[in-house]
């Protein structure tokens, strides 16, 4: 059975019903199906503004950096699977390198920058420090 690609929206997976078949550019065989369920973008926005925001505010910059690093590691460990999927679009390994290796590398770079340049809290002071001059 071919996989129905799902969408993770507002904290849940959507997409049980198969819709359009997605075919391999290599051999024309079905590789997956898009899902038939429509997405509620207003719900997704509301979820991001409430639940998502609260989740982010509960983490300090160092925890966020660690989450980015964990995501980059997870994707890096699965890069061969990503290359195999990408090949079905007609892309060569070199074509896919920018997205797969480059995207993972970008996540690692952001995680490293955040870990080394941001404070351990979740507030950043912007602008010059204001000093009160003695009289």
Describe the structure.
The chain is built from four helices and five strands. It is of the alpha+beta class and 135 residues long. The protein has two domains: 58 residues, no CATH class; 61 residues. A hairpin with a 2-residue loop joins strand 2 and strand 3. Helix 2 runs antiparallel to helix 4 and helix 3 packs antiparallel against helix 4. The longest helix has 25 residues. The mean pLDDT is 93.
List how many beta strands DSSP finds. Answer: 5
One letter per element, helices H and strands E, the order comes to: EEEEEHHHH
Mean pLDDT: 93
The figure for the number of domains is: 2
Ends: how far apart? 80 Å
**Main sheet, how many strands, which sense, barrel?**
3 strands, mixed
Give the low-pLDDT segments.
none
Q: How many helices?
A: 4
Measured as a percent range, the helix fraction is: 40-55%
Give the SSE map.
Layout: E1 3-4, E2 7-9, E3 12-14, E4 18-23, E5 30-35, H1 41-57, H2 61-77, H3 79-87, H4 93-117
Parallel strand pairs: 1-5
Antiparallel strand pairs: 2-3, 4-5
Helix pairs in contact: 2-4, 3-4
